[in-house]
Amino acid sequence: MADKNILSLDIPTVSNCELLCIKDTSQYAPELNIDCEELLITPPGYSVPVLIKVNKTFDFCLNACSLSLQTVGCGSKQNLLTDGIYIIRYSVSPNDKVFVEYNHLRITNILTDYFQVLCDLDVNACQPDSRKQELLSEMSFIRTMIDAAVANVEYCQSSAQGMQLYNYAKQRLSKINCPSGNCGGTNPYII
């Protein structure tokens, strides 16, 4: 039998730009009491974490109101949560000794834009013309940059490099001008 708790969290990428979901995937030693469960979340651009009281085996989604990023209109409209690095720390008593901490790169907004561009490209199950093939190659490169950003932040402990890759992918995505004219930014992507 394990004589210690092994804390872990699952922080999935969700498609709802208003939510950040977190699930406790810890392995708790049955012979140990679990007290003072705390979840501390520091959103991008903030230095002070938000304290959220939890019970073990929690599984929930947080929004701008529950993260204290929105203080008005919480009952009627939720603000979007920004992409970026969320520092997420989960601990149990003694909280300074039994904890797990993650740098989580939230990519929900950029993926929403990415998928919208794919929809606007009207991809079919046939060989695309050369212009569309070049756009699809660019989209593949952008997706690789997004994945590399996540890898750098969450696995390589290189937050600065991860954010540089994220911003680069976002910049390239914003330059794509789709054939339908419904996606990308004001600067057309010229192959």
Structural write-up:
- By secondary structure, the chain is an alpha+beta fold.
- It has two domains: 9-106, Immunoglobulin-like (Sandwich); 109-174, no CATH class.
- Helix content is 29%, strand content 20%.
- It has three helices and seven strands; from the N terminus they run E-E-E-E-E-E-E-H-H-H.
- The protein has helices at 108-121, 130-154, 159-174; strands at 9-10, 20-24, 38-42, 50-53, 59-62, 84-92, 98-106.
- Strands 4-3-6-7 form a four-stranded antiparallel sheet.
- Helix 1 (108-121) packs antiparallel against helix 2 (130-154) and helix 2 packs antiparallel against helix 3 (159-174).
- The radius of gyration is 20 Å and the shape is elongated.
- Mean pLDDT is 89; it is low at 184-191.
Characteristics of this structure?
Immunoglobulin-like, 7 strands, alpha+beta, 191 residues, elongated, 4-stranded antiparallel sheet, 2 domains, 3-stranded antiparallel sheet
Topology readout:
Elements: E1 9-10, E2 20-24, E3 38-42, E4 50-53, E5 59-62, E6 84-92, E7 98-106, H1 108-121, H2 130-154, H3 159-174
Antiparallel strand pairs: 1-2, 2-5, 3-4, 3-6, 6-7
Helix pairs in contact: 1-2, 2-3
